[in-house]
Amino acid sequence: MSKDLSVKVAGVTFPNPVIAASGTYGFGEDYAPLYPLSRLGGISCKGTTIREKAGNLPPRIAETTAGMLNSVGLQNPGVDVFISKYLPELKKNGNVIIANLAGATIEDYTAAAAKLDATDVDMIELNISCPNVKQGGATWGTTCEGAASVTRAVRAVTKKPVMVKLTPNVTNITEIAKAVEAEGADCVSLINTLLGMRIDIKTRRPVLRNNVGGFSGPAVFPVAVRMVWQVANAVNVDVVGMGGITTAEDAIEMMMAGAKAVQMGTAIFTDPFAPLKVIDGLERYMTENGIDDLSEIVGSVKPW
Amino acid sequence: MSYRCGEYKLLKKTALAENIYSFTIECPEAAELARCGQFVHILAPGFTLRRPISVCEIDRKAGTLRVVFLVKGEGTKAISRINEGEYLDMIAPLGNGYSVSSVSAGGRVIVVGGGIGVPPLLQTAKHFDNVTAVLGFRSYGNIILADEFRKVCRDVTICTDDGSVGEKAIVTVPLKRELEKGDASAVFACGPTRMLNAVADMAKEYGVFCEVSLEERMGCGVGACVGCVARISRNGEEKLLRVCKDGPVFNAEEVLF
Question: What is the DSSP pairing of strand B167-168 with strand A187-190?
Answer without folding.
Answer: unpaired
